[in-house]
Sequence to fold (229 residues):
Amino acid sequence: MEKPLAVVLVSGGMDSLVALALANQTHRLALLHFNYGQISEGKELKAFNRIAEFYRAEYKLLVDLDYLKKIGGTSLIDQSLEIPSGLSNQIPTTYVPFRNAQLVSVGVSWGEVVGAEVVFIGAVEEDSAGYPDCRREFYTTFNRLIELGTRPTTHIEIKVPLIGMKKGEIAKLGIGLKAPFELSWSCYRGGPKACGRCDSCLRRLRAFQEAGYPDPLEYDVSSPRITTA
Fold:
């Protein structure tokens, strides 16, 4: 019996990669990536294409959300705003206003066209202090919107399999699933190497430290490291 089809949102980072590795166990894959003018756009796109090739995705779609660049309001796009260094539990300048609502909306739209029954996104509630659209209740509510806003014959559910996990647990899960972390990119900055200083890099470094495995991503040698969990 043929596996059902899943749309998987793949940014190129570690969380979306592990969500993809989970989806790959039970579903055929339709992989979705977004360019929206983010500083690390080139690095993320390269990671997405390499990951899609690794998993031999049945479908692959790249969507440009140019309007997010016009809206701005985030240091991920506006280079006049500083990408902060260090870990934060406050909403940082790297927050892209209401981004995930737009990403999963596109995922549902595409899913309805290609016949998917689920949309996977690697959202993690541990990040929700800084990113309110990473909360479990956000996706629970969004699933109700899908019921109200799609054809009666459409049955698509957003899945957030990592939502309640800690970063170290996610890293360990991905290692167990043989996820190709060496192909991924988590850094908010688009340099030749990961900066090792932004919130995303530091959370990733801490995750691998907690999991007890080396991170295969190459970092700027001048960057600080997480030394305690």
About this structure: The mean pLDDT is 94. Residues 99-114 form the longest helix (16 residues).
